[in-house]
Records
---
Amino acid sequence: MPSERRTDTASLEVTAKPEAVYAAFADPSALIAWLPPGEMTGSVLEYDFREGGHYRIALTYNDAQADAVGKTSAKTDVTSGRFLSLKPAERIVQSVEFETTDPAFGGEMIMTWSFAATATGTAVTVTVTNVPTGISQADHDVGLRQSLQNLARYLSAH
């Protein structure tokens, strides 16, 4: 396991305007409809979408994911953080921390979601800095890409 924290990033073009992408983050019911990667489900525990506002989100692995281990409990990851910067239709910067007793998953990450208009929609890029050493780069890459694909599906249906 690497001893240094790293930066992970993923991008996907979606067929929606930047304003619609931003709105999918602003509404907690929309966010939780697309954010959980893979077969996870989620719930919003707190959500104050404004600069300086706090949030808590729980993501739970389903029973079919027998090898999955949660960071907060056996099958659940709870994250908390705050919104550091909100630029409508452009960028969301937030702090993220797992609620965990395992130091391999501890510490504050900074997650930046950037939206850039394209001829056919929006290029959405997520960049996560200070990723805890307990999260493998391969697993994180898969999870970020799954969330982006879920976002694209959500936006095409709404």
---
Amino acid sequence: MRFEEFLERVTAKVNRGLEGADVRSLPEELRIFGSARAIRELFGRAHLFNLGVSEDLDRAAQEILPDLIEECREDVPAPFDNMVVFFETPRGWSCEWHLKALPHVPPYVASLPGMEKLRLLVDLSEPVLESPALSLAAGYTFVPREDGRLRIILAPRTLERAGRYYNRPLEEAGNLMTEDVLKAVIRVAVISHPANYIVRTVPKLTPHEGRRLASKGIMPPQKKPHYIVIDHDALVDLNPATRLQGTTHRSPVPHARRGHWMRLAERCLHARVAGRTRVFVKETYVGAAEFEDEKNQYIVVLDRSALRPCHE
């Protein structure tokens, strides 16, 4: 199954599952958003990421794991507070919905203790037809540890659900759920690592699809804009111009002075007092930042603060 087909299936399933649903029928972690309609709209506004093949993703994560652990110590270094991450495994497509709760909950919920740290993970992976929409949801928070390792605290209801899901004693099930949440967090952290490039991908519409979008505002689910995350070599191969002409002197290959983390010296007392040990040196990029092929338009995101919602 192609990414576009799975995206369409997931979108249809979530919309069917939430249309007219009573919010009390959903996992407790999701009820904080107030209504099934609010959750459905939140899913529709999510930023979509296709991270490709799981083996390649895991390999990339292992190569930069020390940086990822450092960045995840207190929170998820995610580019958005509402994002859906796709990747392909040997068993089929996986889909994980990541949410930081605070920006999206009603005011009376936002004032509750600890709400600023709460994050949610909803597993929508294949097989998508065998379970109700949004049934596997986890609430968790990060707790910093002095030994440098990551510590995740699961919400009570998440812990109870883990026992039923894994069919294990509560403590063992909690450990398994924590491991799965941590793996999902690392996958998101890969997106923000400065060694990677984020490319906004906008599928081209057929004339009929374009007229339907213009007249009725209906975007084909399988052609929703999304992001891909690639290294420099893959970026060169993605652009038809650089892919064909290679490294000839007549056609300079886009290249970059990569962004990177620089460890602060001990004499940087102000930063040390504030708890910062590293600073991010912003990336620069030389080459075409916008290009297209027969299927998509591509925009290389150079200023990550300018990332735009994928539903626009």
